[in-house]
Design brief:
Number of strands of chain A: 17
Largest sheet of chain A: 11 strands, antiparallel
Largest interface: A-B, 77 and 77 residues
Helix content of chain A: 10-25%
Strand order of the largest sheet of chain A: 1-2-5-7-9-8-13-14-12-11-10
Strand content of chain A: 15-25%
Number of helices of chain A: 6
Mean pLDDT of chain A: 95
Distance between the termini of chain A: 21 Å
Low-confidence stretches of chain A: none
Radius of gyration of chain A: 21 Å
Order of helices and strands of chain A: EEEEEEEHEEHHEEEHEEEEHEH
Oligomer: homodimer
CATH topology of the largest domain in chain A: HIT family, subunit A
Number of domains of chain A: 2
CATH class of the largest domain in chain A: Alpha Beta
Shape of chain A: globular
């Protein structure tokens, strides 16, 4: 993998990645001319015991593009710069123009609860130059390159003092609030271990301390032993399945069988298999009702808080927006107010449906 | 408050409540003729350390009403029974026809994770006989009666062996998945303390153990001392405010200043004031953009798990669906995948907007 770092005229970073060398002389464009002056702060939520991030600068955006404008398309007209230059790159990562978390955060307000600067980072990952593609329809090798990029950003962001947790994700579809359809994901680098990860790691640590092996590793072994009846992809290294305890209809997890702590810890063969698993899952989703399937795709990795995390086991969780065609899964009273998920369908049934969708992987 | 218990022909319970005596001779209708045969089970989610409820009987509903039919309207035609009879009742509660949790739950399937019967209860609370009303537009005394009903159900359900937590809530608006617009709420009675409550109680207990007073009580005192600048209602006993650590734009909490553990523990004067606070909040919401304001309203009370909970402090949290007119607040990658809430606006600003909305309380 080749990588080139560029700095935008407003001070933000852009990284270009490709399997081939990236030539000199590319310049990083920006739709914004002013230097970035982002700021945000965190407040402690005493009842939930978690940090809430406030980026009120975001509402005073100086740059309000027209709805049809695509900032992730390559710049073709120097008078109308986008976020990425033309050139032979395959994947691009840049710092969000209006980040919720930023290394520039400073001077949190005084408050009746504890506050901190909203340090960390918010990055955009452009999966392809093709605005009409989707993650699942990209060639396997491109998806493997994106995994390499996520791994590279995990290491680079994780090495920062102000980053305790690196969280790549993709929101796909208007149903989850996406208005920009150029294929892309995001990376949030938090200055704390966020609540869901903290909770899972706590469970994983208790199991690991007691049993000397990983909780997810143990669960995956049981899933395979249970006639693999919820498994929808089984490669040499990586499994995709509707977990026995799915909270969402059609929820899918993708994980290596080996309890590697992060994408950065995966071998090249494991990454190839991970790419194939991701592609299989997304194409099965799209094939299920013969239309693009909106979801949230969330990575779970080891924190980068300087402590050892032998309990961590990298995996992806897909949360679909729909429970049936045209029926959204709402997170209403029980889910949002009490945190208790309820489902009208069984994971076994949804796994069977997904397993039956045939997909062609190049 | 007067109360009458009736049994529906399918075996489900109906309770009618009113300020005046309810006459003999009312019969409980049901849109379903078959005896209820609900079943559901819980599975342990090892990574999150929580129970997920599966009620797959719900998808095989034998009764599929037309979309315009209102099962919460009083029965006027014996050939087309609804869920409630005509008569001089003011508030009605009945067991859901297709409950996610039910005292009838039995024989959970064997699984690779721990399973349990999905015991507990799911009840519907009909706020009024008027299908065109809304909770906020009901007279103060009716809202106070509804509080009495919630308190009564808290005690009755909480006394059951299979109920560890009683959770009244209201989902309002199509934006949170509500298709039935007759004013109503629900009560879920869980056989476990659900994750959000468990987490909050853990924080509250640690504070209470260390300081000998309540965490929410302490926060409310600070809120008032902070020039009450996020307070939108201040009665003799009850406060409504946008909390300093709001996760949602326009999030509002309603709580008594006194750390009463549940609605059942509130005095009559506190309940009156609570009713006034609820009405004020909802009318401010509706007045903000001059249209019905969709939300999730979630109660937090002491568990009914047989243990003492001096740390508990009853309160309501409102989670609005919108962050701006026509702009939904999506729970996307950071919120759903990592549990980290981010906001583009400050609680102080949203509190100022709500405080400025004038409402007339009878």
């Amino acid at each position: 993998m080749f990588k080139r770092h560029l700095t935008k005229p407003d001070g933000r970073s852009l990284w270009l990645y490709a399997r081939q060398p990236i030539p000199d002389g590319l310049a990083a464009p920006s739709p914004s001319a002013q230097p970035v002056a982002a700021n945000s702060h965190l407040r402690w939520h005493p009842l939930r015991g978690e940090w809430i991030a406030y980026a009120s600068h975001r509402q005073h955006r100086t740059f309000l593009p027209p709805p049809e404008w695509n900032p992730l398309a390559v710049t073709t007209d120097a008078a109308a710069p986008t976020e990425v230059p033309a050139g032979p790159w395959e994947v691009a990562v840049f710092e969000n123009l209006f980040p919720t978390l930023t290394g520039l955060a400073h001077d949190p307000p005084e408050s009746i609860v504890e506050t901190r600067p909203g340090r960390g980072a918010c990055e955009v990952v452009v999966f392809t130059q093709d605005p009409t593609a989707s993650l699942g329809r990209l060639p396997l090798d491109r998806i493997a390159l994106i995994i390499d990029v996520w791994a590279d950003r995990y290491e680079a962001l994780g090495a920062r003092d102000d980053v305790d947790y690196v969280f790549p994700f993709e929101n796909r579809g208007v149903e989850v609030g996406v208005t920009l359809h150029h294929p892309h994901g995001q990376i949030y680098a938090y200055p704390f271990v966020p609540p869901v990860a903290a909770r899972e790691l706590e469970q994983q640590k208790a199991f690991h301390d007691a049993r000397g092996r990983g909780l997810l590793e143990d669960l995956l072994t049981r899933e395979v032993a249970d006639a693999a009846r919820r498994v929808i992809y089984r490669g040499e290294h990586v499994l995709a399945l509707v977990p026995v305890c799915a909270r969402y209809p059609y929820e899918v997890w993708v994980a290596p069988m080996r309890p590697a702590p992060s994408l950065a810890a995966l071998t090249s063969a494991e990454r190839q298999d991970f790419a194939r698993a991701l592609k299989t899952v997304i194409l099965k989703y799209d094939g299920l009702w013969q239309r693009p399937f909106p979801y949230i795709m969330a990575f779970h990795q080891a924190p980068t808080d300087g402590r050892p995390h032998p309990e961590a086991h990298v995996h992806v969780e897909f949360y679909p927006a729909y429970r049936m065609p045209n029926r959204l899964k709402y997170l209403a009273g029980s889910e949002s107010g009490a945190g208790a998920f309820t489902a009208d369908t069984l994971p076994e049934e949804k796994a069977k449906e997904l397993a039956a969708v045939e997909v062609a992987i190049d």
